[in-house]
Structure formats: C-alpha cells, structure tokens
C-alpha cells in the first residue's frame, strides 16, 4: 500500500503537465474523510449531497404507477380507445341492441402484466448492487458504479479491466482526507474531467483514472475506489437511452386498420341510418301496426337512433376477443422460443429467453442486423494457431492426440494450450536452428506482458491484449518461458536453462508504427534488436530479399486466407558502437519537452532497419460456434448484417473476413474513399468521420466502372444539395450515408461509441423504415439494443446489462438463425394468418347484419341473439383460429433453415398488408353474402312441418355456415370442439330452466332443440352452405398457386444470377494481407521501462534487479 | 402445461427445456399435400356429390303439391273496407273458389302468407313482455311493450305489445265440394302446430279458477276483436296465451315476407289420405288489413317431403355448385397438364 502510494504520487506529480484544470460551470464535489482504517475510505455522510443512490431500477412500473402508466400505454393502442368507446355506447342502454355481456377486463390484463413480470425480475437483478461502494472488489468482479481508482493490490496500483478494449487504469492514491471535484454526470464514456484536492495540492483527474460501471476487473486482487457516479448517474446508464415501448409493424398496421374499419363503420352506419330515416317516414304513414311506435319522434331522430344502433350492432367487427387471442398467441409463441431445445446452450446452461412477448412477429421481418463484434461474433479468446519460422510453416499438420509429445520436459507448459505440432517441438528440442531460437526468444522477450508467480508455482501472465498473452503463452509452451521481468531485465527459461537479458530499450507500439521492438543485451553480452509488427512494416525494413522472405510471404498469404491475425517477427544484431550512438539520440529525444513522440518515432525508425526476418505468427481470434454459417444463412435470407465495433479497422476487417461477412470478391470502400468523394458534408455529419470509419464492400457487377461512376454522381449531387440549403444538409448527408451503406453488401463501422451505435441504428430505422435487430452482449451495446426494433442480448459474457435491456436473450450468436428463420418466420406467419382468418371470420359473420338491414326496414334489428354474439368470438369460433395461431407451420423447421429465401416473405410484408386486408374483406363479404342469401332463399317458403323461416333458426343456420366455411387441417379437433361448444352453449343459453329464471335475458328457449324433430331443416340447410361458401374460395386459392410458384422460381433465378456475377471478379488475398490485427494499445512500454508496474514484493527479482542496477548502470 | 413444466424443472436441475413434442413444436400433424391428383379427385368427388344431391332435392321438391291463393287481391271489396281503420267492427266475408287438379296426399298444411309485413322491425320485435306471457303477474309498464301497455284509463292490455296487438286475425275455412250441391267442411287441427317448447314453456296462462277470471282486470289489445281468453272457446288447452295461432304469431318472422302455419289437415273420413282432387272454396273472414302497407295476403296449401317444402332453391344451389366444381376440376386439370413439367426450386 505504501509503495503504491508513492508510485501514485509520482504519477500525479507528472500529471501537472496536463492542461490546467478549468472549473466547470456545474460541478459536484465529493469529500474524502480520514479513513477509520488504512483500507477504508468512505464518502462523507454528513455532506448534504443529492446524489443518486446505486440502485438502478430497470423495471418500468412500480406498484403505484402501474395502473395509470399502463392504462396510458394501453390507450396508445387505438383499438383500446375504440373498445372504450363501444363500451360507453353499450352502457347507454337506450341504443343497446343485444350482445351486451362483453368482457372489459382484458383491456388492462392483456400482455402487459406478463412482460412486466419479466422486467420486474430483471430489474431485481440489476438493482442488486446496493451499497458496495468501497468494499474490496473480488477477482473479475463486475463494477457496479463509476469509481475513481484509489489504489489496488497490483504493482504500481494498476488495475486491469476487461471490456471490449482492455486497458489499464492508472491510479491515484489517497490516504488522507481530500476533495474531488468533477463534472456533472454525462454520457461521454471516454472523457472525464475533475480535480482532486489533497494535502493542499490539486491534481487533475482524467478518464484514465476512472473505472466505469459495467467493466470487469481482471487479474487484480483488490482495488479501492471512490464512487463518483452511481446508479443512474453512471456513464453507462447515461449512455443507455430510454426504455421505449416497442411496437411492431403489425401493431402499427393494426392501428391504422382500426381507423380504416372505424371509418368504414361510420360510413356504413350513416348510410343505413339515412335509409332508416326514409323508412321511418314510410312505416309511419303506411304500416299501421308500427305507426304507434313512431309517435313523438321525427324521422331525423329515428335516423339518429338507428345510426347509434348500427354502430353498436356492427362494432363487433373489431372484436375485443381478437386482441385477447392475439396476446395469447404472442405469449405462447414466446414460450415456444423459451422451450426450444435447439436454442439451449448446455455449456452455460442457458436456454433462450423471450423477454418481450409482443415482438415475435417482427422476428420474421428483420432486414438489418446490427451486431457487436467482441463477445458476440467472437469469443474474445486468442489462440496461437500457426507460425512460419525461417520459411517453414508449423501448425498445419493434422496432429493426432496420441502423438503429443510428453511435455514433462517443460515444467512450465500451460496444458490448456491448443497448439501442438510435434515436428516443431522436435526441431526445437534439437536446438540446431539459430533462427528458430531467435524466433522463440523474440516471442518471449518482445512484449509488455507482466508475470506473476502463484503460490503453486504456476505462472500467470497478465497482458493488456489477449494477442500478446497468446504469443507469450505459445513461447512458454514451446520451451521459452518468460519467467520474470524487472525494470530493465527479463529472465527467460530457454529449454530449461535460465537466462537473464538486460533490457536496453523498449520501442513502443503505436498505431502509426504498427510494430514494437525491444533492445536487449543477452547474457553473452551481444546486443540484439527484436521487432514484431505488421507484415508491410516489417518486410520493407529487411536487410535482404532472401528466399525466406518469399516463403514467409506465401505463408502470410495462406494465414490471411484463413483469416488469422498475422504478425511478422524480425531481429538483428546491433553493434556496440551503433548502440552507443543511438542510445544518446534516444536519450535526447526522450527528454524533449515538445514533439517528443515524433522525435522518438524518428529515433526508433533509425535503428529498426536492416532486419533479419525470422518468421511470422498467426493468431486466431476465436469466433463463436457456427458464426460464419449463421451469417451466410442470414445473408441468403436477404438480411443485411452490419458490424458495429469499438475496435480498430484492421481487427474489424479481419473478423469480417473470418465470419464470411466479407469475401475476396467484394470491393472494399474505406472511409478515405467515402471522404474523398465528399469531404465537406462529412464534416458536418452527425457521425463524426474521425470516429466512424466505414468499410463498405460493394458487390462488383460486371466491371468496376459503372457502379463507381454512379456513386460519384451521387456524391456530386449531394454536395450541390448541401451548398444550396444549409439546414437540410445534415439530414441529406445522413440520408446519403444510409443510401450508400444500404446498397453495400455488408457494412462495418469501427471505433464507434455506444451512442454512435445507437445513432447508426436510428439512422437506418429513420431513412429505410426497415425492421432492425441489434445484437450485443456488453453494456456498450445497451443503447443500440434499446434503439433497434428488436434487441437481442447475448447472455453470459459481459454481465447481464445487455440481456436486461433486450427483448430476447440468447446464449450464442448462432441461435439467431433459428430465432429468425424458424421462430420469427413462424410467428409472423401465424400472426398474419390469424389476423387474416379472424378478420375474415368477423366480416363473414357481421356483414350479414348489413344485408339483413335491407330486409328489416333498416331498424338495426340484430340478426343474432345476444348470447350468440357474446359467445361467437369466444367459444364458437375461437379454437380454429387459436390453433392456427399456435401451431401453424407451413414448412418444417429444417426446411426453413434449408431455404432461408423463404424469409423474404416477411420482409416484404406479404402475408398481411392493406392488399391482404382488402382481399380478406372481400372474401368475408362474399362469404357473408353467400351465407345470408343461401339461407334466405332456402328458407323462403319452405313448407316444413313447423314454423319455418323464423329468424332465430335462420340466425343459427347462418352462424353455423359462417364458421364452417373455412377449414384448416391442423385445427380439425378444434373445429370439432367449436361445434360441441356451439351445441352445448346453445343448449345452455336456450334452456327452458334458464328461461324460466330470467325470461328477459335468455330469450330463445329451445331454438336448437325445437329444430331437432325437423330433420330436414336441421340437416340440409346448414350443410348446404359450407360447400357453397368454401368451394369458390378454395378454387381461387388453388388457381393462385400456379402464379405463386412462378414468382418463387423468379426469385430463385435472381438469386442464382447474382451468385454467378459475383464470381467473375476475384481479388487476390494479397491485398488484404495487411490485416495485421493486434489489439494493442500504446503506452505500456513506458510503464515497464519506468518500472512502475513491477511487483516489488517478489524479493528475488528485486534483489536481482538491484544487483544489476548497481552493477552496470545501463538504465 | 405449467404443471408439467415445473415438474420437469424438479427432475433435472438444469434449465434445459423439456424435449417434448409439444414444446418442440413437433406434434404429429397431417399436412395436406395439395398434389394434383388429390385436389382433382376431391374436386370431382365433391362436384359429383353436389350434382347428385341437387338432383335428388329437386326431384323431391317437385313432388310437393302446393297451391297458393292471393286472397287480398281476390277479396277486393274487403280489402277496401279494411283500408279505413274506422270500419274495424264491420264484418267482411269473402269466398275463394279453386280446383285441385291432383290429390294432395299425406300431411297437408294450411299456411297464411303475408308480404311486406315487417315483423322484424327492431322496436316491433322487442315490443312484448315474456314475463306476462309466462302468466306472471308483472307490471307491464316496465316492459318493452310501450306504447301498447295500458289504455288511458289505466287498464293494462293482455297481451301487451305491438306484436300481440297486430296479430293475424283472419279466419279461414275450407269446404270441399263433393258435387255441385253438397259441400263439406274440411276438418283442420287447430293445435299441435307450434313448437313444444313454446307451448309448454314459453307461454303459460295466468293461474286462476277459470281463464276469464285469470284475465280479469286486463283488457284486449286495441286491434283485437275479442279478449285473449276467447281465442279458442272450444279447447281449454288452446286458449289464452297458449293459443297456437297466437304462439305462432308471437314467434316473429325474419323477413317481411313470411308464412305461418295456420292449420293441419285432420285425417278423417274422405280426408284420411289427404285432400282429394276436386273443387274447393275458402271461406275467409277478412279482418287483417294489408292494402295500405302495400302488402298481400295469401293462403297456402302444401304437402312436405323429406327435403322440406316446394322450394327449389336448395336443389338448384347444389346442382349449380356441383356443376361449377366439376367444371373447375376440368380447368385445373388443363392448367396442371400445361404446367406439369416445370419443377420449382422448392421441390429440391
């Protein structure tokens, strides 16, 4: 602790070089009190601070707000307003016309409670944190608040965190009361401005000293921090965006349809009421038995009453039960997602989870997928796959488990490593090739990894980037074990013999140099330079073009083809006098106050010349299971996949190739190219070009020229537009970006912040009105997940934040194919068919009322009795539709995945849209006409033994035929049950006993029973109707099959032709070999050479280091 | 379902979903494969069935003997008289002669048929008190009967309501001319024409020691010539509210044109087998006015068969749809033969 203190103090002292702190207009201050024990620092309780507590409530409602908020949201759905209106109408008993036992509860009790329950539970997990503010964090603990790092158990009080870009947070140590002043909570993830007043001195604080909520602390035993922002104030929560009520496309369509139907209803009612007015005049004048009923009212009044009468009578055209059934179907379909064994990930024991129950149909309509990279596409695990030493490639041979050499020769070997090449091991053990020795030495020496020896004697490497860790671990397994480092020595165990190299200089990595080097003096006294870096950089600094270079280039090509991350390794011997000269220059440069970095780069450049190529390494950034296949399948299903990542361009491109998002025959449009064609608009674009680099791969169609030219014309047009109208510029640039990006096959956005991720999603949503899906795993994807129409969280990797904000939680990226292509497609199909069928059913049933009005003097006489109306949608006709909504499968799951092309149906809204609705309306109308007139004419004058033609038995017959006239096969049972229910309820509601009890409620005793003796009526007339009604529609359906097949085959031809065109052009993999990918950050070499990061408690190393320092004074 | 789920969770601690057919959506299902042979065969089967059905129904419907006589046109003088409602108490009789060419064998029914009479008018159809018709002592002021509830002096109407008030009150009798001199009355059954449930459940007379006392304190509806307890003086079980004519009238019809059963033939003497061919005369007491509402009154004699009455529509509908189906079958066959060779992508 004390050691850390001093180190930290020094760091802060240096910090004064930073720009002076300027007080912010609105800032907050936190005070540090004298700690009760040296390990505890607590924020002052006595300070009256109105800060957020750390509980984060992600639940939408609480007990008090549930009812009003939920009601408000429910009434956002137009249909609910409509139902309220109808209910109010019904309550006015004056106009009521039967069918008055309607359920009212479903309004609130629909889907909301279910999905809310899920959110509540989720919220509980999110808000668990409570007051952990300053408890020691455990190894790999997830941070729950934004902290100012005070100290940690690690050397120099560093703290390692694991996010998508791992970094070390430098530290600041305080042991005494102090005061922190910082800016108001904001959403800028990468900046922080504040000051610390401590012992009368002010220190500036920047983002490097802040640990953000959602990061995972890694390889750090304990650390202490001061909570700066907690709860909703934390940066990540500020970046989260708001929880919005997500509505599906169908929901919105339904809302509009409700309006359409309502307008239709009003118009029809108005026309009928108008006729009613005329008929009232006639009835009054001519029909003496009715005229008494009209005494005291004018025809206009009669028309007015008739209008409301018809409104109520026809209001069942939008049945409330449809919405209830709708919700039920959504819910069960969500359950099917939860239950799917094929989306269960046994390794983590996680099934898929549909957290939102109301978006299923949209899963079948996705057009754009926005995916995070790290943790979603990749596992964030680097493995050393192959290497090329002196022109020889190792790691390619198909090694057999039995052949693995006993590793007992190497006590340090990490047994979990995957790289085993017996031939390489053999060569190493022979120890004959000096190049191989140098190669492995380089791997063990040239890095910024730190090592820790556990009590068990196991070595634990702590690396800033997983790449480096992979390389050092590989060297370790191959017998060149990195044992320890001090400020200026590195100790290796080379095939069992311990050698200590003294480190003369570390030439740090940065993104311009794309390489790092180390200058060491080996135990024999020779000075050597070891360099590793991107192939382009290394290859041009070689001494000679030997055969090795050619071989290595070939190897690099083949590595790149396998989308491995490559690095070139080279070394040279430096003469003592050269070193002395260079060292002086280096020293001069390193003490410069201005342009130090540039000068250092120049100095580094001088010595990194005339290198001797040793070989190349290939690291695999491990993709998650079946990612390439999934992406390919999704692409076949016409879904565009965009990758939004905070990573560097090279890494992103590399992964793009690895997961077959990009292929060699695509033209790559990089940021610069986009820039070059339209520099000015980009300057004002909402997306800052410095952060968003776009890699668009445009498909080449028959020669490069045409497409590119067209694009240039496009940009030119854009520039003009900008010049003329300034205000429109922003949106037009956005639009231009979207236009360009959407014609691209795949888009990769690099270096984007969480907010920008959401912005990109927003952009596509706004300009393309397409359904978007965002998938991610980390806290930095939350905003994107919330913005997209559907958010999918990958559970398990980086905490639960993404999952808690998501609509669907999956364990693996590859389950996406099943979620979309199987469940999504089915859900869409089911909901659409359900809606279509339900609308058809109600139209067929209720339009009859309109036709009947022509025969009843437009008096809004209900054709059906009240009980029938009430039960029609719930018991008589609900089961066939329900079974359709739950079980319908047009093709099996296997076929759905085999033919992803089938997915396009949903993207084009083909199964339910205005056209389909009109067809349904027409179909329903025809059916209603059929069932009405067939019954009318069949009953007319039928001289049956008893009273024929009375309107009650007529109603029954019409009803029977209306719901029998659309057969589905799967629902055979349910139709049967509907019939049973029909008979049962007819019997119950028309029972004599019931009638005796309440004659005014149960009006029609024994209508059904009374018919039974009248066999001819009962059997023939209802039977006649279904074939009449269903056969024509069946024939139409069959006839329409033929054109449908033609359309499908046309689709196919289009698909095939694009495939052919693609293969005309092939881009050599050489051009993308520069896919040098290395997730490294600069600045570590500095730390190491200053010795700041070295662990001092290891006395052995310290003693050694001190001895050496005293011995020769190279440092 | 829920239950099963929780059970599964208890069995294995893992969160792995059950691998049951329902949850995996792999329930055995029959998917109709719409292949050409199956579709075509079903089309032809249904078509042929409908055709046969239609022909049978037509044949049977044509065997029905039916005679319809529009007596509101024939009895013009009576029609004229009833046009003015002030003549309501003047009796008007009318005779209609007709000749039956063939014997009407079996059950013969007599109907009256009204045209353009809106029994399905919404407020008309509501204008009744089921409680009153059940014989209960209710205050009809609160029922739907308005405006036919009480007279200005406060006496309630029995039965109340517009339906009851406008009851069909013509009486029709048929006489058979054995020869040009002697005519005998054709015997008809007045009761047993209504549904059992109506007669025995929906309609009950108020209970008292006799019917007229049961209706004491009430009076007939304004259009009626006699009170309810005098509807059928001969048969106690066909009087009052449970009078068959009344019950049948109270069962309102769905359309402005309708026919109600009036009488059934009583099979006695000459009429044991039905109505023999010959000359007949309807003797009609014309009470029910229809001319002002441009309506018509008819009297119908008809027999029935297994397929119902003389209505040909059902048979024609079956025949036409059968024919159309068969035709469609042929068209689809033609299309199929033309397109057969193309194999689609999805048949991979």
Features:
heterodimer; A: 1115 residues; 9-stranded mixed beta sheet; 9-stranded antiparallel beta sheet; elongated; disordered C terminus; B: 348 residues; alpha+beta; 5-stranded antiparallel beta sheet; 11 helices
Strand content of chain A: 15-25%
- Give the class of chain A from helix and strand content and strand pairing: alpha+beta
The chain-level mean pLDDT of chain A equals 68
Distance between the termini of chain A: 26 Å
Major sheet strand order of chain B: 1-11-4-8-7
Q: Can you tell me the residue ranges of chain B where pLDDT is under 50 for at least 5 consecutive residues?
A: 1-11
Report the helical percentage of chain A.
40-55%
- Oligomer type: heterodimer
Tell me roughly what share of residues is in helical segments of chain B: 25-40%
Cofactor (chain A): Mg(2+)
GO biological process, one term (chain A): Golgi organization
Pfam families (chain A): Cation_ATPase (PF13246), PhoLip_ATPase_C (PF16212), PhoLip_ATPase_N (PF16209)
Keywords (chain A): ATP-binding, Coiled coil, Cytoplasmic vesicle, Endoplasmic reticulum, Lipid transport, Magnesium, Membrane, Metal-binding, Nucleotide-binding, Translocase, Transmembrane, Transmembrane helix, Transport
């Amino acid at each position: 602790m004390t050691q850390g203190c001093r180190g930290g103090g020094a760091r802060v002292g240096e910090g004064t070089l930073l720009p002076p702190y300027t007080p912010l207009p609105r800032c907050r201050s936190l005070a540090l009190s004298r700690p009760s024990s040296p390990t505890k620092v607590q924020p002052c309780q006595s300070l009256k601070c109105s800060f957020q507590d750390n509980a984060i409530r992600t639940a939408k409602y609480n007990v008090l707000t549930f009812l009003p908020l939920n009601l408000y949201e429910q009434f956002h759905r137009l249909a609910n307003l409509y139902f309220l209106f109808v209910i109010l109408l019904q309550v006015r008993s004056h106009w009521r016309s039967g069918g008055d036992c309607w359920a009212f509860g479903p309004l609130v009790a629909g889907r909301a409670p279910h999905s809310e329950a899920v959110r509540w539970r989720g919220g509980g997990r999110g808000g668990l944190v409570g007051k952990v503010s300053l408890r020691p964090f455990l190894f790999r603990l997830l941070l729950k608040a934004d902290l100012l790092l005070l100290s940690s158990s690690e050397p120099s009080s560093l703290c390692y965190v694991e996010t998508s870009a791992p970094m070390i947070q430098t530290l600041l140590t305080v042991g005494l009361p102090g005061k922190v002043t910082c800016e108001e909570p904001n959403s800028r993830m990468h900046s922080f401005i504040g000051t610390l007043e401590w012992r009368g001195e002010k220190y500036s604080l920047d983002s490097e000293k802040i640990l953000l909520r959602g990061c995972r602390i890694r390889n750090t035993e304990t650390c202490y921090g001061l909570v700066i922002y907690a709860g909703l104030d934390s940066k990540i929560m500020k970046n989260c965006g708001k929880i919005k009520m997500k509505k599906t496309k169908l929901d919105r369509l339904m809302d509009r349809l409700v309006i359409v139907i309502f307008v239709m209803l009003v118009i029809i009612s108005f026309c009928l009421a108008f006729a009613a007015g005329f008929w009232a005049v006639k009835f009054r004048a001519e029909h003496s038995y009715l005229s008494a009923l009209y005494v005291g009212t004018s025809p206009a009044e009669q028309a007015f009453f008739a209008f409301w009468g018809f409104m109520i009578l026809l209001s069942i055209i939008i049945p409330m039960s449809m919405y209830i059934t709708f919700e039920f179907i959504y819910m069960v379909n969500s359950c099917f997602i939860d239950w799917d064994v094929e989306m269960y990930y046994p390794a983590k024991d996680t099934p898929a989870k549909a957290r939102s129950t109301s978006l299923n149909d949209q899963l079948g309509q996705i057009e754009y997928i926005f995916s995070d990279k790290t943790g979603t596409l990749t596992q964030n695990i680097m493995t050393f796959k192959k290497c090329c030493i002196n022109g020889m490639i190792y790691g390619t041979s198909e090694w057999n488990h039995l052949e693995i050499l006993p590793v007992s020769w190497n006590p340090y070997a990490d047994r979990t490593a995957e790289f085993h090449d017996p031939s390489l091991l053999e060569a190493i053990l022979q120890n004959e090739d000096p190049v191989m020795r140098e190669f492995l030495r380089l791997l063990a020496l040239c890095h910024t990894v730190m090592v820790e020896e556990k009590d068990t004697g196991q070595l634990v490497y702590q690396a800033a980037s997983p790449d480096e860790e992979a390389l050092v671990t590989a060297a370790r397994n191959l017998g060149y074990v990195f044992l320890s480092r001090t400020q200026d020595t590195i100790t290796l165990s080379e095939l069992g013999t311990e050698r200590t190299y003294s480190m003369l200089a570390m030439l740090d990595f940065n993104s311009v140099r794309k390489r790092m080097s180390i200058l060491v003096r080996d135990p024999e006294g020779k000075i050597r330079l070891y360099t590793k870096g991107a192939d382009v950089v290394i290859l041009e600094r070689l001494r000679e073009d030997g055969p090795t270079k050619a071989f290595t280039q070939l190897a690099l090509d083949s590595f790149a083809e396998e989308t491995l991350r490559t690095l070139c390794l080279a070394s040279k011997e430096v003469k003592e006098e050269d070193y002395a000269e260079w060292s002086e220059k280096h020293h001069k440069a390193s003490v410069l106050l201005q342009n130090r970095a540039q000068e250092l780069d120049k100095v580094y450049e001088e010595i990194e010349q005339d290198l001797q190529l040793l070989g190349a390494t290939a690291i695999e950034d491990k993709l998650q299971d079946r990612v390439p296949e999934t992406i390919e399948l999704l692409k076949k299903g016409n879904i565009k996949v965009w990758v939004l990542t905070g990573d560097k361009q090279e890494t992103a491109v590399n992964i793009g190739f690895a997961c077959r998002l990009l292929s060699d025959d695509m033209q790559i449009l990089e940021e610069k190219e986009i820039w070059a064609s339209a520099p000015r608009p980009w300057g004002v674009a909402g997306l800052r070009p410095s952060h968003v680099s776009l890699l668009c791969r445009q498909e080449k169609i028959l020669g490069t020229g045409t497409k590119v030219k067209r694009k240039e014309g496009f940009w030119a047009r854009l520039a003009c537009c900008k010049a003329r109208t300034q205000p429109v510029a922003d949106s037009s640039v956005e639009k231009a970006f979207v236009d360009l990006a959407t014609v691209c096959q795949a888009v990769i956005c690099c270096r984007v912040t969480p907010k920008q991720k959401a912005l990109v999603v927003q952009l596509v949503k706004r300009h393309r009105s397409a359904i978007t899906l965002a998938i991610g795993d980390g806290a930095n994807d939350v905003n994107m997940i919330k913005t997209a129409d559907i958010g999918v969280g990958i559970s398990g990797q980086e905490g639960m934040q993404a999952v808690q904000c998501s609509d669907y939680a999956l364990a693996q990226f590859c389950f996406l194919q099943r979620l979309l292509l199987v469940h999504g497609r089915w859900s869409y199909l089911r909901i659409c068919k359900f809606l279509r069928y339900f609308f058809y059913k109600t139209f067929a049933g209720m339009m009859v009322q309109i036709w009947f009005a022509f025969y009843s003097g437009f008096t809004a006489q209900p054709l059906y009795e009240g009980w029938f109306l009430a039960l029609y949608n719930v018991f008589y006709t609900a089961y066939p539709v329900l079974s359709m909504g739950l079980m319908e499968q047009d093709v099996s799951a296997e076929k759905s995945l085999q033919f992803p092309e089938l997915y396009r149906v949903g993207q084009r809204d083909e199964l339910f849209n205005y056209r389909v609705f009109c067809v349904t309306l027409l179909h329903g109308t025809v059916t209603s006409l059929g069932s009405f007139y067939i019954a009318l004419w069949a009953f007319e004058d039928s001289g049956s033994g008893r009273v024929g033609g009375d309107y009650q038995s007529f109603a029954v017959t019409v009803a029977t035929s209306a719901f029998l006239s659309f057969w589905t096969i799967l629902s055979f049972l349910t139709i049967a049950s509907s019939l049973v229910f029909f008979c049962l309820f007819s019997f119950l509601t028309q029972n004599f006993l019931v009638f005796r009890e309440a004659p005014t409620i149960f009006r029609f005793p024994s209508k059904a029973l009374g018919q039974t003796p009248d066999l001819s009526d009962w059997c023939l007339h209802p039977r006649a109707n279904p074939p009449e009604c269903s056969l024509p529609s069946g024939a139409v359906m069959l006839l329409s099959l033929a054109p449908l097949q033609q359309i499908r085959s046309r689709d196919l031809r289009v698909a095939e032709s694009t495939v052919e065109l693609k293969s005309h052009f092939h881009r050599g993999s050489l051009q993308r070999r520069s896919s040098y990918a290395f997730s490294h950050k600069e600045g570590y070499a500095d730390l190491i050479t200053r010795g700041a990061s070295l662990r001092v408690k290891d006395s052995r190393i310290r003693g050694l280091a001190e001895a050496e320092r005293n011995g020769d004074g190279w440092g | 379902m829920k239950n099963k789920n929780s059970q599964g969770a208890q069995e294995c601690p893992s969160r792995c979903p059950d691998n049951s057919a329902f949850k995996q959506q792999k329930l055995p299902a029959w998917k109709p494969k719409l292949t050409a042979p199956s579709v075509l065969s079903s089309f032809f089967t249904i078509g042929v069935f409908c055709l046969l059905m239609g022909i049978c129904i037509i044949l049977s419907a044509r065997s029905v003997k039916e005679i319809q006589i529009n007596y509101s046109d024939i009895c013009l003088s009576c029609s004229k008289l009833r046009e003015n409602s002030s003549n309501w108490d003047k009796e008007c009789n009318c005779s209609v002669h007709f000749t039956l060419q063939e014997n009407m064998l079996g059950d013969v029914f007599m109907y009256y048929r009204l045209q353009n009479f809106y029994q399905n008018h919404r407020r008309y159809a509501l204008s009744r008190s089921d409680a009153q018709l059940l014989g209960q002592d209710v205050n009809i002021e609160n029922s739907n009967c308005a405006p036919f509830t009480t007279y200005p002096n406060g006496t309630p109407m029995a039965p109340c309501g517009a339906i009851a008030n406008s009851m069909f009150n013509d009486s029709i009798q048929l006489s058979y001319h054995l020869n040009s001199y002697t005519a005998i009355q054709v015997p008809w059954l007045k009761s047993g024409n209504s549904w059992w449930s109506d007669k025995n459940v929906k309609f009950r007379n108020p209970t008292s020691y006799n019917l007229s006392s049961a209706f004491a304190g009430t009076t007939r509806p304004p259009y009626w010539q006699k009170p309810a307890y005098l509807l059928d003086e001969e048969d106690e079980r066909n009087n009052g509210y449970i009078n068959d004519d009344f019950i049948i009238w109270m069962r309102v019809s769905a359309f402005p044109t309708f026919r109600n059963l009036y009488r059934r033939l009583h099979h006695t003497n000459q009429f044991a087998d039905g109505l023999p061919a010959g000359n007949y005369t309807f003797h009609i007491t014309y009470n029910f006015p229809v001319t002002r509402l441009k309506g018509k009154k008819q009297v119908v004699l008809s027999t029935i068969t297994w397929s119902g009455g003389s209505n040909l529509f059902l048979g024609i509908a079956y025949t036409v749809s059968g024919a159309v189906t068969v035709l469609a079958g042929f068209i689809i066959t033609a299309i199929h033969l033309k397109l057969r060779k193309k194999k689609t992508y999805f048949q991979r």
